C-alpha cells in the first residue's frame, strides 16, 4: 500500500482525480493505493462473488460487486467485495445500477494481501460498520482464517469447518475450510 502525501486534498478533489490501477482509496485525508491483487487473492474474490451471487441474484435478495467504489462518511473506499441487499441498490430511470455509490455496503469483504496492514484493513471494516454495514469479513489467506465484524459485537475469528455468519436471508453456508479449499486447483487424486 502506498500513501500519497496530499494531506490537504479534499474528498471532492480526490473524486475528481483520474482513476488509478490498482484503485486508490481516500481515508482520513490521505490517498492510499490498494495493492495489485495476486493469484490467490483474485481466486478467492472470484469464488466468493460467485457463491454469493448464485444464491442471491436471481432471487433478488442481494448482489455482490467486485471492486466497487463506495463513498460515505468522508471516505471513499473500494472493498474487494461489496454486497448490497437488492432493495438498497440504487437504480437509475432505466433500471441500471448508478455508478456513484454513496452508501456503505451491507456486507464488506476484504481479502488481505501480504503488503497490506491488517489493522488498516480492519479499520476500513469498522468504518463501514459505523455507517450501517451489517457485516465485515477480513479474509486472511496466510493463516486460513476469517475475522468477522458485526455491529455492537466483538470481532470473532473463524477457522476450520464452523459456519460463518453472513447476511440474513441468504441461503448460503460458507466455512473457512470451503473458502480456502477453493485455492486448491489440482484434482484430489493428484
Identify the notable features of this structure and list them briefly.
alpha+beta, globular, 4 helices, single chain, 22% helix, 24% strand, disordered N terminus, 3-stranded antiparallel β-sheet, 6-stranded mixed β-sheet, 190 residues, tt1808, chain A
**H/E series, N to C?**
EHEEHEEEEEHEEEH
CATH topology: tt1808, chain A
The total of beta strands comes to: 11
Largest sheet: 6 strands, mixed
Characterise the protein shown here:
The chain has helices at 11-15, 39-56, 118-130, 176-181, and strands spanning 2-3, 24-27, 30-33, 62-66, 70-72, 75-77, 81-85, 107-111, 135-140, 145-149, 156-158. The chain is an alpha+beta fold and 190 residues long. It has one domain (37-181): tt1808, chain A (Alpha-Beta Complex), CATH 3.90.1570.
Topology record:
Elements: E1 2-3, H1 11-15, E2 24-27, E3 30-33, H2 39-56, E4 62-66, E5 70-72, E6 75-77, E7 81-85, E8 107-111, H3 118-130, E9 135-140, E10 145-149, E11 156-158, H4 176-181
Parallel strand pairs: 8-9
Antiparallel strand pairs: 1-3, 2-3, 4-7, 5-6, 7-8, 9-10, 10-11
Please provide a brief summary of the model.
The chain has 190 residues and is α+β, with helices and mostly antiparallel strands.
Amino acid at each position: 500500500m502506498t500513501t500519497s502525501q496530499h494531506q490537504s486534498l479534499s474528498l471532492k478533489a480526490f473524486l475528481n482525480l483520474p482513476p488509478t490501477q490498482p484503485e486508490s482509496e481516500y481515508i482520513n485525508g490521505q490517498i492510499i493505493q490498494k495493492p495489485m491483487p495476486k493469484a490467490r487473492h483474485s481466486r478467492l474474490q472470484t469464488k466468493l462473488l460467485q457463491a454469493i451471487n448464485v444464491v442471491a441474484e436471481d432471487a433478488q435478495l442481494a448482489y455482490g460487486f467486485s471492486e466497487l467504489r463506495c463513498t460515505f462518511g468522508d471516505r471513499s473506499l473500494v472493498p474487494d467485495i461489496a454486497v448490497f441487499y437488492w432493495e438498497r441498490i440504487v437504480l437509475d430511470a432505466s433500471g441500471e445500477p448508478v455508478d456513484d455509490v454513496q452508501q456503505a455496503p451491507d456486507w464488506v469483504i476484504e481479502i488481505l494481501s501480504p503488503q497490506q496492514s491488517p489493522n488498516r484493513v480492519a479499520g476500513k471494516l469498522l468504518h463501514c460498520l459505523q455507517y450501517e454495514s451489517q457485516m465485515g469479513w477480513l479474509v486472511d489467506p496466510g493463516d486460513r482464517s476469517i475475522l468477522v465484524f458485526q455491529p455492537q459485537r466483538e470481532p470473532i475469528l473463524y477457522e476450520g469447518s464452523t459456519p460463518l455468519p453472513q447476511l440474513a436471508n441468504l441461503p448460503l453456508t460458507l466455512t473457512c475450510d470451503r473458502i480456502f479449499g477453493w485455492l486448491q486447483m489440482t484434482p484430489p487424486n493428484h
